[in-house]
Write a structure and sequence with these properties.
With 517 residues, this protein is an alpha+beta fold. It contains 18 helices and 8 strands.
């Protein structure tokens, strides 16, 4: 009895002490945060915060405009959610690289469950599940793996060129099919054949929904008003509910269908090497189901993210070549000099083609696929240069603003590959994989080496084979093309017309022969 009373007294005392400490810490934190300024930014309104200060469609442009007023680190508050907007490369390195222990989490996104993508690697909170995913990526998508996959890139490039020869007006669809074919073969050992491949159609539809619904700004609205996710799909004006329902159905198809394809091929003994093949053949039988779920999630992420970003990059390339014919001519002269006209370029030619390398660097700067990256979140309070950044803040990397820095990139709206050369004519030391478009710190894109290779082989193959010009209308006049983008988490150039003309009969013959072999 005495022992029980002693234990009770000790427990009660411990509880009192714990409560006291919690209150002291909370009081200190309140005092601590109140005594320090937040980063500069527009004054938030009650409840809605700074919603009226930004565009929810072209948010990157709003944030870039705010940079001119408030500087390289801007504080916003949207529907109760704290935002810290990073507008410079210097601050990106300081926070996301040097303080990665604090800045590697993801914001709370009700949209993950709402759209059925709880397994999507890029949105996972920092922890064991994310590390398991990235371990698989490291195995399949590291620089050395990209070297082994070059044969796939080149083979698919020939098919891509043949499709452009056959129907050049549908270049955007051909780009998507080219990227999808590479990603699906690397990830699942699956060969995309038809123009209406069911897996490609599913991921294309899913991406169209996610790119609108997954922005942190829209997620802040769902977080502030969670009842919105429970509105019936039949309710008037509930289009977003119907899209979310369709998204959940598509997400299950993207997650499971290609995975089951590879699994069935393994069982039949006909599977080719791929990320999923390698992972399943090394799986631990003691925890089969859990490991399969990780593999499925990681593989589907490669499918979704790789398809969307690489397609956007190459669409931007076509736009740049239409708008800057002198750049195109200079690149083609380099290819003709170092490669010749009797064959198409290969990866062995890459060191001899520095201007092509500069075009790729400039393309990533000039036309970033995800202009605001994927937002990070702080896992604890932080003080940076005297400013208080609270735990749970949504930290957004404004890639667009970084790439438009006028001090580093004079006339940033111009597509100018020459800016990536030193005064002695050599390429600057920074590499393509260091581009802000791939992120920073512990959340840097694990597929950056594959994305770089896919873009390079497509760019050099198109330039070697085609001349890209403005299309002409029925009156014989050139159709004007402007640099305009769609909106959402990821962006593409607004659809435009152009003409892709084969540079010679010899090139046409080579493409047809190699694409059929």
């Amino acid at each position: 009895m005495l022992m029980n009373l002693s234990l009770f007294a000790a427990s009660a005392f411990g509880g009192v002490i714990t409560l006291f400490l919690v209150r002291v810490i909370a009081r200190r934190r309140t005092t601590y945060s109140a005594s320090l300024p937040r980063p500069p930014g527009p004054k938030p309104l009650p409840v809605i915060g700074n919603v009226m200060d930004i565009s929810l469609t072209e948010t990157w442009l709003s944030y870039t405009a705010l940079k001119k007023i408030y500087g390289d680190l801007v504080r916003l508050r949207l529907m109760g959610q704290e935002f810290a907007i990073i507008n410079s490369e210097k601050i990106a390195h300081a926070l996301l690289d040097q303080r990665s222990a604090i800045y590697s989490d993801r914001p709370i996104l009700p949209a993950r469950k709402f759209y059925g993508i709880e397994w999507l690697t890029i949105l996972l909170p920092y922890g064991a599940e994310l590390r398991a995913h990235r371990k698989l990526f490291h195995h399949a998508l590291q620089a050395e793996s990209s070297l082994r996959q070059r044969e796939i890139y080149l083979r698919r490039a020939w098919v891509f060129l043949a499709s452009l020869l056959h129907d050049p007006e549908e270049f955007e669809a051909h780009i998507q099919r080219f990227v999808a074919a590479i990603v699906m073969e690397i990830t699942y050992g699956y060969e995309v054949q038809s123009e209406n491949d069911p897996y490609v159609s599913a991921v294309s539809e899913l991406n169209a929904i996610l790119t609108k619904g997954l922005t942190p700004e829209r997620s802040a609205i769902l977080l502030a008003f969670p009842f919105l996710t429970h509105i019936p799909a039949w309710f008037p004006g509930a289009k977003f509910q119907r899209e979310a329902l369709h998204s959940r159905q598509l997400a299950q198809k993207v997650l499971n269908a290609p995975f089951e394809f590879t699994k069935s091929r393994i069982a039949a003994g006909t599977a080719s090497q791929s990320l999923v093949f390698d992972c399943l053949t090394q799986i631990d039988e003691d925890n089969n189901e859990a490991q399969e779920y990780v593999i499925k999630g990681a593989a589907a992420t490669v499918f979704i993210a790789g398809f969307e970003t690489s397609s956007s990059i190459l669409h931007g390339f076509i736009l740049a070549m239409v708008l800057y014919p002198k750049v195109q001519a200079k690149a083609q002269a380099e290819i003709d000099t170092f490669v010749g006209s009797t064959r198409l370029p290969s990866f062995e030619d890459r060191p001899s083609l520095p201007y092509i390398e500069a075009i790729l660097r400039e393309l990533l700067r000039w036309s970033p696929a995800i202009p605001l990256g994927v937002s990070h979140a702080t896992s604890s309070d932080d003080i940076f240069e005297g400013y208080f950044i609270p735990k749970g803040a949504c930290v957004t990397l404004n890639v667009w603003a970084i790439n438009q820095d006028e001090e580093k990139y004079p006339d940033p709206d111009e597509f100018r590959p020459e800016r990536h050369f030193a005064t002695d004519g050599s390429l600057l030391s920074d590499s393509i994989s260091d581009s802000p478009v791939f992120g920073y710190g512990r959340r840097i894109c694990p597929g950056r080496f594959s994305a770089e290779s896919i873009a390079w082989v497509a760019i050099v193959s198109i330039l070697a084979t085609f001349r890209i010009e403005k299309a002409k209308g029925v009156d014989g006049r050139e159709i004007d093309v402007k640099k305009q983008y769609t909106t959402g988490l990821s962006i593409h150039p607004v659809p435009f017309r152009c003409a892709l003309l084969c540079r010679s009969a010899q090139k046409e013959k080579m493409v047809r022969e190699n694409s059929d072999s």
